[in-house]
Amino acid sequence: MTATTTKTSHDLARESFNRCNRSDGFFDTFYTILKSSNADIAAMFLKTDFTKQNGLLRVALELMLMFERDGDAARQALAKTRQSHNQDGLNIRPELYDVWLDCLMEACAVHDTEFDTQTEEAWREVLLPSINYLRSGYREGFGDAECMSYLRSIDPNLETVAKAWCQLPVSVRTEIVSKATRNT
Ligand code: HEM
Q1: Residues 29/109, Cβ–Cβ less than 8 Å
Q2: Helix, strand, coil percent values for the chain (each to nearest 5)
Q3: What is the 5 CA–ligand 1 centroid distance (Å)?
Q4: How far is the CA of 2 from the centre of ligand 1 (A)?
Q5: Which domains are present in the chain?
Q6: Hey, whose CA ends up nearest to atom 16 of ligand 1?
Q7: Residue 4 scores a pLDDT above 70
Q8: In whole angstroms, what is the distance from residue 28 CA to residue 95 CA?
Q9: Is 57's C-beta closer than 6 angstroms to any atom of ligand 1?
Q10: Ligand 1 site-directed mutation target among 63, 92, 93, 99, most atoms within 8 Å of CB
Q11: For 57-73, how does the pLDDT look when each residue is reduced to its tens digit (9 = 90+)?
């Protein structure tokens, strides 16, 4: 008698990703679908080197798949992407991550020969925590991309100082300002 094992959502998403990776053009299909979903999104990728981008996304997806089992390491490795996508960087609004996930599922449906409703549910369940981690970084930026690029154009250090200042709790900022005004 053979023992039957029930596959976890993680197993199902992992196996689907392996099949997609073995199928030529998976990442190209994904970015074609993502760009055609919305003209604003297409405009974001006008200058992208997709040979490089496809490789970076492959690595990011690997990290997202390990998010549940090794959250701290995955968070650390995804921290730069979280920051680059925030409102001072690529300015990827949180709701765009839902579009991104729908497009990824469409690309999986094309490249994974065993793709079905259960596989899709597994992917969505497994990716959600890391997607929420990435999109929750949106407001951690300074919040004014124009102002940041102005400061950067004067002196790159000004941008760093402004970002550090904005990350301080309001109570600390108020205290510093009141000390500084007392001393003037
Ligand atoms: C969980 C979702 C996402 C993941 C894992 C992801 C991953 C990445 C990675 C690894 C890069 C390379 C540079 C970096 O790490 O900062 C990148 C760049 C980029 N991503 Fe994302 N991304 C996600 C969501 C989105 C969404 C929703 C959009 C817009 C709709 C977007 C637009 C871009 C753009 C415009 C670039 C720059 C491409 C270039 O260099 O020209 N990303 N992304």
Answers
A1: no
A2: 75, 0, 25
A3: 36
A4: 44
A5: 9-140 (1.10.490.10), 145-182 (no CATH)
A6: 81
A7: no
A8: 22
A9: yes
A10: 92
A11: 999 999 999 998 898 99
